[in-house]
Amino acid sequence: STLLLLNGPNLGILGRREPEVYGKATLADVERSVAQEVKERGWDVVSVQRESEGELIHAIQDNYDSVGAIVNPGALMIAGWSLRDALANYPRPWIEVHLSNVWAREQFRHESVIAPLAGGVIVGMGALGYQLAARALLSLTQE
Ligand code: DQA
């Protein structure tokens, strides 16, 4: 089984991107920690980071058979309506993650168009948020 780890625009340069806001962990660090978290269940992680919305949508459509997803949409949280529609058709539970506490920041980050569809939302916990999301998916998919 695979878990889909989906990261939107500007998240490939994690660690070198405004580290005072987003922390020092790289995307590779995040991928490792999520993989570590879910290996007890025998899940593999498929990690996709893209700068464009269309490619993220393809990744969702290509992974309907995954067990669940962790999604950091980046700034697509603000107006990513096509991403939202793609996630509406994703058949498994998924968790939205934001490294920073978006509510402590600019007004335009205070609403996410994908959040109403998410199984849960984790914000402001830095890279740990991805691990917590992985744990949440382990619980949500327990029969
Ligand atoms: C982010 C928050 C977004 O507002 C921002 O556009 C990002 C990163 C976060 O992880 O904190 O790209 O999703």
Automatic annotation (TrEMBL):
Gene Ontology terms for molecular function: 3-dehydroquinate dehydratase activity
Listed EC numbers: 4.2.1.10
UniProt keyword terms in alphabetical order: Amino-acid biosynthesis, Aromatic amino acid biosynthesis, Lyase
Classification via InterPro entries: DHquinase_II (IPR001874), DHquinase_II_CS (IPR018509), DHquinase_II_sf (IPR036441)
Domain of life: Bacteria
Family from the record: Belongs to the type-II 3-dehydroquinase family.
Full protein name: 3-dehydroquinate dehydratase
Organism: Streptomyces mutomycini
